[in-house]
Design a protein that fits this description.
Largest sheet of chain A: 7 strands, antiparallel
Shape of chain A: globular
Low-confidence stretches of chain A: 284-289
Order of helices and strands of chain A: EEHEEEHEEHEHEHEEHEHEEEHEHH
Radius of gyration of chain B: 23 Å
Strand content of chain B: 15-25%
Strand order of the largest sheet of chain B: 3-2-1-4-16
Oligomer: heterodimer
Number of strands of chain B: 16
Number of helices of chain A: 10
Low-confidence stretches of chain B: none
Chain lengths: 289, 469
């Protein structure tokens, strides 16, 4: 069992938890993910790692309630324990392999969307610790859904906010802000990294390509085991089938077939909908008693 | 004459009923039937069954105990060589091993060795007969990677010798393919798998789940930082193969591993689990091995009309004969000499059918099987809303990639000698990780050989250098 050390709600639908998982905390690297199975009857849910504390043996996860299983995870409280937390899974971000010399002269721009902002944080923190200049764009539908603003501001050079409705920062999409930063403000970046909803990563890639900027994306595909066994996570990258769980989750955005990836992501949508209804039904019964 | 007695038939669930449930197909022998069947053994002076068994169980000896009603005695004979008899009695390909070489099989039917083994193991679990003892510790730690058949066999042999054994399992439940791959109706999880793993734990073996070796820890960190004297890699062959034909990434195309893992490990067939599974109404399963049979029979039980597509003929089907027979009885359609060339999708990117080509058998290939060749212009379509690929699996490259000095061959299998020794001193390997996908019992045999080799390695090398142990 893996005890939840602390829990806080970042927005009404997004929670942050620190979980005691010493082996995982000792080996986690930026770019990797983990899998939580909340209880015996739950699914195995892949979640990004938002931080790790090797000294205290904890990892931080940020979960958005989007279905029955993620709602189940968010219903756990500090002091409760998950049945299983396994990881770190996937390949660490490419820059973790680079020497200080190779990182010199680089300037990164991160494009973070929604709950995808959380896994951007350890990457920015890592690069910042290496002295690499990093700018970050955080995008959300409205000001109330923005997360990790203070944390991010403390580890990046410039933090830019954008909201669809203009309730905070730039009014518009992350892509519009990225274009503005490069074309109007004259910022020059050597590498972009986009993490967020698949559709955002698709359009961020299109914009980056237009700007001649290389871009890495982190694919949140369906998974069962997360170790290469099931193939549910297969994506077409550069015309070849790749397993996001063991060969990713990060890939060169230019090469990813986003339309296929989005279609595959929705494979269990009708079942998920049913499960969510069942879950809510059960919860309501529970509350009534 | 003993061999005039016909083989005692085994009771099974009616095919029509079992096609709608996940309960075990075969009921197994009761005590009376087992004693009767045991009476058919001729007790050959040179028992060919024993040499045909990958773990060399003293088959006539245990059968003699069964014949006299001494089931506990029979269990202790089997336990000398096998730590998972209730599992092996159910999933071994007996027809090509022990029973395939039984002298009675020449003119009639061989002794039902598998069913007798199963009976003895089940009886022993239910009646608390023979129990293996925990050995006094010798102070050396051995790590086993993977809790499937090879890992469990290796771990129990080492524990019996007094080693302090920890098994690391990547999934949340121990058992490997016994848990995620083989369905409940063929191998009950609580009654059989969990019980036999419980017996391994009773020997003092520790099982740590949720540890992915190569990510959470590495073979190197186990040896260098955690104080293990040797490591056995029994990580299996978990990576699914696809055909590389157009349409394989359409929605509704699954690896058998995914489909079976969702149902077996994640219990998608049960309402009380949250796991989603998409079965479809018309399922085509591609392949002819045990995994193909398991996937097809699972889809059938979930309500789908199911067809198995295989490129050779029934004679070449690599699955256990009993599984093919059961699948046919349950109403699965077999389309032999048929090979997919493309999976067809609808406008939303979901499977709507599978285009196949008729095959004919040509010259035998290196494996001795006649290789199928396509019949030009014979393409035809099968309607399907789900396609399950059961084409075999290969070892996961993660461990080999993250372990210094561990060699693999061109198929990605870890290179190991007959005793499981790899290119790296102190690191041993066996089972599917070395051979590629094979059987439970071959993996167990490899695990046992490696356990003996690890004992020799530690006593020969480590023990000399570690004073005071």
């Amino acid at each position: 069992m893996f005890e939840i050390v602390s829990k806080e709600m970042l927005t009404p639908a997004i929670c942050r938890m620190k979980v005691h998982a010493p082996r995982l905390a000792a080996s986690a690297q930026p770019g990797q993910f983990l899998i939580v199975r909340p209880n015996e009857h739950g699914e195995r849910i892949p979640l990004t790692i938002s931080d790790y504390d090797r000294d205290n043996g904890t990892v931080t996860i940020v979960t958005q309630k989007i279905g029955a299983s993620t709602s189940a995870i968010c219903s756990f409280e500090a002091g409760d324990a998950f049945s299983d937390v396994v990881g770190p899974l996937g390949v660490p971000s490419e820059f973790t392999e680079k020497s200080d010399g190779e990182l010199a002269g680089q300037r990164y721009i991160f494009i973070a969307g929604g709950v995808g902002t959380a896994p951007v944080y350890p990457q920015v923190k890592y690069l910042h610790s290496k002295g690499v200049p990093v700018d970050v764009i955080i995008g959300a539908k409205n000001a109330g859904l923005l997360i990790y603003k203070e944390e991010m501001a403390s580890v990046c050079d410039h933090l830019y906010i954008c909201t669809d409705d203009g309730s905070e920062g730039f009014k518009g999409m992350v892509t519009g802000l990225l274009e503005k930063l490069v074309l109007e403000d004259g910022n020059r970046y050597t590498q972009a990294v986009a993490i967020g909803p698949m559709i955002m990563m698709k359009f961020a890639t299109l914009t980056a390509r237009k700007l001649g900027l290389p871009i890495i994306v982190s694919l949140n595909t369906l998974m069962v085991d997360g170790t290469g066994m099931c193939g549910a996570c297969r994506v077409t990258v550069g015309g070849k089938t790749r397993f996001a769980c063991v060969e990713g989750p990060e890939f060169d955005g230019y090469e990813v077939d986003f339309d296929e990836a989005m279609r595959r992501q929705g494979m269990y949508r009708s079942q998920e909908h049913d499960a969510e209804e069942r879950y809510e039904h059960k919860c309501k019964i529970g509350r009534g008693r | 004459m003993a061999n005039r007695i016909p083989r005692v038939p085994v009771r099974e669930q009616d095919p029509k009923i079992r096609a709608t449930n996940f309960d075990e197909v075969c009921f197994g022998y009761d005590a009376r039937e087992a004693v009767l069947e045991a009476g058919r053994c001729l007790h050959c002076k040179n028992p060919r069954c024993v040499s045909a068994c990958p773990v060399s169980i003293s088959i006539p000896e245990f059968i003699a105990h069964v014949a006299t009603g001494d089931f506990s005695g029979a269990a202790s004979v089997i336990a000398r060589d096998s730590s998972l008899p209730a599992i092996c009695g159910r999933v071994c390909p007996q027809e090509t091993q022990c029973e395939g070489s039984c002298i009675l099989g020449v003119k009639g039917e061989p002794v039902a060795i598998g069913k007798l083994e199963r009976f003895v193991a089940d009886w022993n679990m239910e009646n608390g007969g023979h129990k293996a003892e925990k050995a006094p510790s010798n102070g050396y730690k051995v790590a086993v990677v993977g809790s499937g058949p090879s890992g469990l066999a290796c771990a129990s042999d080492l524990a019996k010798m007094g080693y302090d054994v920890t098994v690391f399992e990547a999934l949340h439940k121990a058992g490997g393919v016994l848990e995620y791959g083989i369905p409940e109706f063929r191998l009950p999880k609580e009654k059989v798998v969990a019980s036999e793993i419980g017996a391994v734990k009773a020997l003092g073996v520790r099982i740590e789940t949720d540890v992915v070796v190569g990510r959470t820890v590495t073979v190197d960190s186990l040896l260098d930082e955690e104080g293990y004297s040797a490591v056995f890699i029994g990580s299996g062959a978990g990576l699914p193969r696809f055909m590389g034909i157009p349409g394989e990434n359409l929605n509704g195309v699954f690896s058998a591993n995914e489909f079976l893992t969702r149902n077996n490990l994640m219990k998608a067939y049960r309402d009380d689990y949250m796991t989603p599974v998409y079965t479809g109404h018309k399922v085509v399963v591609v392949g002819g091995g045990n995994v193909a049979m398991d996937a097809a029979r699972t889809a059938l039980r979930l309500g789908a009309e199911t067809t198995i597509v295989y490129r050779r003929t029934e004679k070449e089907l690599p699955a256990r004969r009993e599984e093919v027979h059961h699948a046919m009885e349950e109403g699965i359609t077999f389309s032999m000499l048929t090979n997919p060339v493309e999976i067809l999708g609808d406008e939303k990117g979901w499977v709507r059918g599978i285009r196949c080509i008729k095959m004919e058998l040509g010259e035998p290939d290196e494996s001795g099987r006649r290789s199928p060749v396509p019949v030009q212009g014979s393409e035809f379509d099968i309607e399907a809303d789900s396609v399950i690929m059961a084409l075999g699996t290969s070892p996961n490259p993660l461990i080999a990639r993250t372990t210094k000095g561990l060699e693999t061959n061109r198929r990605g299998c870890i290179t190991a000698d007959a005793n499981g020794a790899t290119s790296r001193p102190g690191v041993f390997a066996g089972g599917d990780a070395v051979t590629g996908a094979a059987t439970v019992i071959l993996a167990m045999g490899a695990g046992r050989k490696a356990a003996a080799a690890i004992d020799r390695y530690i006593k020969g090398t480590v023990a000399d250098t570690v004073v005071g142990k």
